Amino acid sequence: MKILNLNSYDDARPFWVELSRNYKNGELALDWMANKLIWDHFYKNRNFLLNIIVGIQDGCCTGIFPLLFGDHDMNGIPYWSFNDDFIISKEYFCPPEEIHRFFKHLPPHFCDDLSCFYAPEKTHHFYRAARGLVDMKPSQEEYFQSLKKKYRHDMRRTWKKNEDVEVFADNRLHEAKIKAVLECHLDYWRQKNGAVSEGYISYSRDKILTDLLLLRRAEELGKLIALYFYLEGELVAANFSIQREQDRVDDYLCLRNSQDHFSSRGLGIFAILKNMEHCRQMGIKYYDLSSCLNDYKRKFVNMLTFSYLMLFDGIPIEDGVSQLA
Fold first, then answer.
1. Domain limits, the chain
2. Which of 118, 166, 173, 325 is 20 to 30 A from 128, comparing alpha carbons?
3. Cα separations (Å) of 168 from 42, 237, 278?
4. How many angstroms separate the CA atoms of 147 and 153, rounded?
5. Enclosing H/E stretch for 63
6. pLDDT mean over 250-278
7. Summary mean pLDDT of the chain
8. Is the CATH number 3.30.390.30 carried by domain 133-302?
9. 211-241 burial by CB neighbour count: b if 16+ within 10 A, else e?
10. pLDDT at residue number 45
11. Among 5-19, 66-80, 211-225, where is mean pLDDT lowest?
12. For 104, which DSSP code?
């Protein structure tokens, strides 16, 4: 196999287009433009390094692995990463039956968010990590019955509290409409996390702004599901998910008015429940909350599912030392 190491998405584009044509064309996680948007508008400005590993077998592109290198991770140790905070379910851009060819060409790298729908052919190179996946069931009542009793009661109570909220479903991102609730959402994060660090505030702000660019790209691909929530004519929340394949969606972004008089409503939970109801009517079965499970997300999960994380020489990837840095 011929291996190319590229440091530009523009250089990788012809190989990306070829692989997309033959493998999962139209998926946001595997879309060249989506990945370039993330790089251009977030990581590049933070002085990350980019190494796009491209494999050519018998004249055809068989795999692309865009790896990032930052100056530190949460433990203060540099690492290459196949993970980012923007793609909910980031698969290796490679057919499962081909991935074993790349093991010796990849550096140890961090990834905590591989799709639980991706099962590598040779699992001894991987270990499993729990994932937040929801089986929405054929009806909301069946879904509620699949939850723990205390969570089921919480969901029903939140649903009832918000019966007066009008909900409109769309497949477009209305940036002008969400401007006020977006500013409120960012103010909430600034107040909540201001004591953490200015860097964390900057990270959260820039991440949401990049998420909006990805939502716009999902709209162009015909993959966006958008719900807008009104109370007495005022937009109080917006929830966005992105369809992946035919029977699953990724929960992407929830914006809500976080003022005190809305806090008892549980608008974030209500927004996800409404999005699930809409997806259920579309014939979608699975709702993916990613592997980053906050306490409120755990309430939704009714399945024991796993993502696969790569191992190097029997060592979990986050403990490995970069070979390329």
1. 2-124+307-319, 133-302
2. 325
3. 31, 11, 10
4. 9
5. strand 60-70
6. 90
7. 86
8. no
9. bbbbbebbbebebbbbbbbebeeebbbbbbb
10. 87
11. 66-80
12. G
